[in-house]
C-alpha cells in the first residue's frame, strides 16, 4: 500500500504558509482556476503565504475539465517560473493540472505523450525527482490530493485519459472542510456522485492477487492495483456515507430549486 499524507481539520488551510516555510520553499507556484481565484479558499491560502513570508506566483488559468492544451499551458508557466514548490488550491481539475506542471517542468526534455497512459501515450515510468506539491482540495469528490493520477481530455482523439505514477502524488494534502461550504449545489451533488462511483469501482475491482501478468519491475506497477482488504473497508465506509448524506443533500437542493 502506498499511503498518502493528509492533514484534516476545519481551518487547517491557515497552516500552508508554515508548511512551505518548513520545506524551505523560496519560490512557490500557486495554481487555481479563475472562479476560485476570487473565493475564500484561495484568499485564505494567500493570507497564510504572505504572513509567513513565502514568495509565490499565481497561475489562475486552470481549465475546469483540463485538456492536453490546458495542461501544456500550465506546464509552460511552470517551466518559465523555475519554482521550487507547487501549491494547488481547487478541485480535481486544478490539482491534476498542478501535478502535470510539476512533472513536466521537472522533466523538461520529455515529450508530452512520454508519461501519458499507454496505448495513447508511452506510459514511461517517472525516474526524475519532482518538487514538493501541496494540494488544498476545495471539492469533496475526486480525492486527487491522495492519488498519483492526473486526468485530462486528449482533444485530438476525443478521449479522456491521464498520467498515472506514484511520483506525481501530492507530498501533502490539506483537507479543510470549510472550503466545501462555498461549493455551488451542482458541484456538491456531482462530487457526491464521484465518491459513489469511486467507491463502487474500488469495491468491485478485480482483487490484487488475480491481476496478471506481474509487472517486470515495481516501477512499472500501475497506480491502481486492484481491490484489497483495506481498500474494501474504506469503499464500504464511503458507500455508507453516500447512502446517508447524498440523498439528504439532493432533497435540500430540489427544494431550493423549487
Ligand atoms: N486525479 C484523480 O485522482 C481524479 C479522480 C477523479 C476525478 N478527477 C478529475 O477531476 C476533475 C473534476 O474535479 P472536481 O469535481 O473536484 O471539480 P473541478 O475542479 O472540475 O471544479 C468544478 C467547478 O467547481 C468550482 N469549485 C471548486 N471548488 C469550489 C468551492 N469550494 N467553491 C466554489 N466553487 C468551487 C470550480 O471553480 C469549477 O467551476 C475532472 O477532470 C476529473 O476527471 C481526478
Automatic annotation (TrEMBL):
Chief location bin: mitochondrion
UniProt-listed Gene3D superfamilies: 3.40.50.1970, Dehydroquinate synthase-like - alpha domain
Domain Alcohol dehydrogenase iron-type/glycerol dehydrogenase GldA: 5-177
Pfam families assigned: Fe-ADH
Sample GO molecular function, one term: metal ion binding
Taxonomy, superkingdom: Eukaryota
Catalytic reaction annotation: 4-hydroxybutanoate + 2-oxoglutarate = (R)-2-hydroxyglutarate + succinate semialdehyde; (S)-3-hydroxybutanoate + 2-oxoglutarate = (R)-2-hydroxyglutarate + acetoacetate
Catalytic activity, EC: 1.1.99.24
Entry keyword Nucleus: no
Keywords on record: Mitochondrion, Oxidoreductase, Transit peptide
One Gene Ontology term, aspect cellular component: mitochondrion
Subcellular location: Mitochondrion
InterPro entries: ADH_Fe/GldA, Alcohol_dehydrogenase_Fe, HOT
Family stated for the protein in its record: Belongs to the iron-containing alcohol dehydrogenase family. Hydroxyacid-oxoacid transhydrogenase subfamily.
This protein's name: Hydroxyacid-oxoacid transhydrogenase, mitochondrial
Species the sequence originates in: Capra hircus (Goat)
Gene responsible for this protein: ADHFE1
Amino acid at each position: 500500500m502506498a499511503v498518502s499524507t493528509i492533514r484534516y481539520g476545519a481551518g487547517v488551510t491557515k497552516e500552508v504558509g508554515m508548511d512551505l516555510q518548513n520545506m524551505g520553499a523560496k519560490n512557490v507556484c500557486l495554481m487555481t482556476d479563475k472562479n476560485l481565484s476570487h473565493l475564500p479558499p484561495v484568499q485564505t491560502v494567500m493570507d497564510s503565504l504572505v504572513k509567513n513570508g513565502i514568495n509565490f506566483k499565481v497561475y489562475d488559468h486552470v481549465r475546469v475539465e483540463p485538456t492536453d492544451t490546458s495542461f501544456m499551458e500550465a506546464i509552460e508557466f511552470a517551466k518559465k517560473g523555475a519554482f521550487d514548490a507547487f501549491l494547488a488550491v481547487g478541485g480535481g481539475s486544478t490539482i491534476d493540472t498542478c501535478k502535470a506542471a510539476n512533472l513536466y517542468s521537472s522533466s523538461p526534455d520529455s515529450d508530452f505523450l512520454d508519461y501519458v497512459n499507454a496505448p495513447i501515450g508511452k506510459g514511461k515510468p517517472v525516474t526524475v525527482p519532482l518538487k514538493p506539491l501541496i494540494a488544498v482540495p476545495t471539492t469533496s469528490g475526486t480525492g486527487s490530493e491522495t492519488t498519483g493520477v492526473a486526468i485530462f481530455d486528449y482533444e485530438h482523439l476525443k478521449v479522456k485519459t491521464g498520467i498515472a505514477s506514484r511520483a506525481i502524488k501530492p507530498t501533502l494534502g490539506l483537507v479543510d472542510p470549510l472550503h466545501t461550504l462555498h461549493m455551488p449545489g451542482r458541484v456538491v451533488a456531482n462530487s457526491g456522485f464521484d465518491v459513489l462511483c469511486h467507491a463502487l469501482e474500488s469495491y468491485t475491482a478485480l482483487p490484487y492477487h488475480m491481476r496478471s501478468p506481474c509487472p517486470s519491475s515495481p516501477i512499472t506497477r500501475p497506480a491502481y492495483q486492484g481491490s484489497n482488504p483495506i481498500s474494501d473497508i474504506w469503499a464500504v465506509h464511503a458507500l455508507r456515507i453516500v447512502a446517508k448524506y447524498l440523498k439528504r443533500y439532493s432533497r435540500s437542493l430540489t427544494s431550493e430549486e423549487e
